[in-house]
Amino acid sequence: MVKGKRILLCVSGGIAVYKAAALTSKLVQAGAEVKVMMTESAREFVSPLTFQALSRNPVYTDTFDEKDPAVIAHIDLADWPHLVLVAPATANMIGKLANGIADDMISTTLLATTAPVWVAPAMNVHMYDHPAVIRNIDILHSFGYQFVEPSEGYLACGYVGKGRLEEPEKIVENLQHYFNDARSLPLKGKHVLITAGPTREKIDPVRFMSNHSTGKMGYAVAEEAARLGAAVTLVSGPTNLPTPPGVTRINVESAQEMFEAVMNVYPMTDVVIKTAAVADYRPKVTYDQKVKKQPGAVSVELERTTDILRTLGEQKEHQLLVGFAAETNNVDEYAMKKLREKNLDFVVANNVSTEGAGFGTDTNIVTIYQREAEPKSLPVLSKHEVAKEILDEVIKELKERSR
To answer: Where is this region: Phosphopantothenoylcysteine decarboxylase (predicted)?
Structure first.
């Protein structure tokens, strides 16, 4: 519940500022006490008077405008909230926060706050995909910031894609979710990286190699990890699933794209849970034009893809690594072999030929393996329940390491 919570809303410039006005109204209606800070560019779109009327509080725009000489405004504001929400967060503001630049009221206050910070980006689709913005978002994740992913659709610039500020109702829902679980957040301050779904290995423009993974298991783990307070990055192959609340999602197609996305985030993560069904092989030659039907048999030569999990194990420093093993026979043998050879902390294995387990179902039957303990076999459970069991083991191990 946001009722009774003090929320500091930081509004940076962009056409999505009008949504921030609606967001202010929604938060106040939900019972939150809201104070608003605005950048100079935000004021070009919507007047501070609008936010003052909606929040029923003064609006702060200038670091040097000290309304009360007895206090330093940006320090007073930094100490005030239960939560800071930056919405909309422009590429410029994200860059400032990631690099410690403090040249306006918002960036100065956020350097001084110890409250949890949530960021709702809004920008052009190409800006959102730019390596500098991706890097800055990764840095903020490493600080423990949480993100409300932008939605996809028609943008003010005329492009169609990802970059729209999420709807105010959805943002409030994310914050409700956060405060509802705030009493028990064992993964708060941890950055969890999760991979999910299949990969697609291109043959030609209309054909590819893939598998039956739907991503349901990985998305369930991502949702539960976020609910437990983690900053969650979800690297996802092609699926039809919505992004879980409070989760940052990176979409990829191929095994190589997934490898690159994972390695980019890996140094800043505490826990990696690799549920994705990544292709072991890809066509050695791909074609720019559709391969036409020919008489007789056609062969496709394959080459190995990079073993993401093995690479993570080789480069492991402080991270806790959880791998998945989808098998059809000799599950115990293959799971323990994977655990040892890839330097993992846990392997979650299942027999995908068993009814109620594997791809496409809403349930799973798994066994959790680790080096110094007996395997933990679970009955048929929903994938969300399996996710909770996995994260319980992860939390126990993290607590053990911190002793």
So the answer is: 1-191
Kindly give, in sequence order, each residue whose CB lies less than 8 Å from that of residue 326, ignoring residues fewer than 6 positions away.
277, 349, 350, 352, 358, 359
Residue 157 annotated to the active site: yes
342 assigned to a ligand binding site: yes
- What single DSSP character describes residue 332? H
Out of 154, 180, 206, pick the residue that ends a domain: 180
DSSP string, 10-74: EE-SSTTHHHHHHHHHHHHHTT-EEEEEE-HHHHTTS-HHHHHHHHTS-EE--TT--S-TTS-HH
Among 115, 147, 180, the domain-final residue is 180
280 known member of a binding site:
yes
The answer to whether 338 is a known ligand-binding residue is: yes
Residue 183, pLDDT > 60, answer no
SS3 label, residue 357 = coil
Q: What are phi and psi of 333, to 5 degrees?
A: -60, -50
Question: Which residue segment(s) compose the domain that 354 sits in?
Answer: 191-285+301-402
Q: How many separate domains does the chain show?
A: 2
Q: Is residue 295 included in any domain, yes or no? A: no
Of the residues 156, 157, 206, 373, which is catalytic?
157
Tell me the pairing of strands 231-236 and 247-251: parallel
CB-based burial label for 284 (10 Å; 0-12, 13-18, 19+): exposed
Q: Is 324 annotated as a binding residue?
A: yes
| Whether the model pTM is above 0.85 | no
